[in-house]
Write a structure and sequence with these properties.
Radius of gyration: 16 Å
Number of strands: 8
CATH class: Alpha Beta
Order of helices and strands: HEEEHEHEEEEHH
Strand order of the largest sheet: 3-2-1-4-5-8-7-6
CATH architecture: 2-Layer Sandwich
Shape: globular
Low-confidence stretches: none
Strand content: 25-35%
Number of helices: 5
CATH topology: archaeoglobus fulgidus dsm 4304 fold
Distance between the termini: 36 Å
Mean pLDDT: 91
Largest sheet: 8 strands, mixed
CATH superfamily: archaeoglobus fulgidus dsm 4304 superfamily
Number of domains: 1
Structural class: alpha+beta
């Protein structure tokens, strides 16, 4: 597993060039274990006036959704917030928390985009290519592209396109909530991504592994409401 930044000179221009090159290594076809035995959610927040990245990982049994392991890693943030380059800011913390897990997951849900990114390498795709793990990006807002808003039926989804290219799905995971933006990160086919997310949605808007990681990174406890 590489660190995801091999050869990076620290510049924005070089980071964008690296994204375009790494995007060529993304595999948009199913390469995950069948049946899935474990799934994990990953999220990253920032604390100490954005000086420290706080990554969380929650590993669940893929059938029962019972927690197997929960980890938190804090890493000094060395890159400023630059739209479209958030993976370079978040990746060190994500890799650190992955190393702390008791076992590697069969499938990863990451708060952010997969290939639904201007250079087709959002955080979920960057993480997937770097680690080799099957991954899906689940985001709350569109970064690039557009699509028809899905109707108010749980599990409905419509294509997200950038021009003629499909880059993801708009998924109505919960009725009367804004749709999620779902896109393959690595080793997951476009046709599988939305259904895999819905497989792990319970009564909330987010799939359960990501919801639990989000609660942890946001310091929410059981007495505070989740985002609906």
């Amino acid at each position: 597993m590489s660190n995801g930044f091999s050869g990076w000179d620290g510049s924005v221009a070089h980071a964008r060039a690296m994204q375009s090159r790494l995007a060529e290594d993304v595999v948009v076809k199913d390469g995950f274990a069948k049946p899935l035995e474990t799934v994990a959610g990953f999220d990253v927040g920032f604390e100490e006036e954005d000086a420290v990245a706080r990554a969380t990982a929650v590993l669940l049994d893929a059938v029962t959704l019972q927690p197997i392991d929960t980890q938190v890693a804090r890493v000094q943030a060395t890159m400023p917030h630059i739209p479209g380059l958030l993976s370079f800011r978040k990746m060190p913390a994500l890799l650190a928390v992955l190393e702390q897990l008791s076992q590697q997951p069969d499938l990863v849900f990451i708060d952010g985009h997969g290939i639904a990114h201007p250079r087709r390498l959002g955080i979920a795709a960057h993480f997937g290519v770097t680690t080799g793990l099957p991954s899906i990006g689940v985001a709350r807002k569109i970064l690039v592209g557009d699509g028809i808003i899905p109707h108010q039926t749980r599990g409905a989804y419509t294509a997200l396109r950038d021009g003629r290219e499909q880059i993801g799905w708009l998924l109505r995971s919960k009725v009367k909530c804004k749709p999620l933006v779902v896109s393959p990160g690595h080793r997951v086919a476009m046709a599988s991504a939305a259904d895999l997310v819905m497989r792990y949605v319970t009564t909330y808007r987010l799939p359960e592994p990501m919801r639990l990681a989000d609660r942890l990174v946001s310091h929410r406890d059981d007495h505070q409401p989740d985002e609906h």
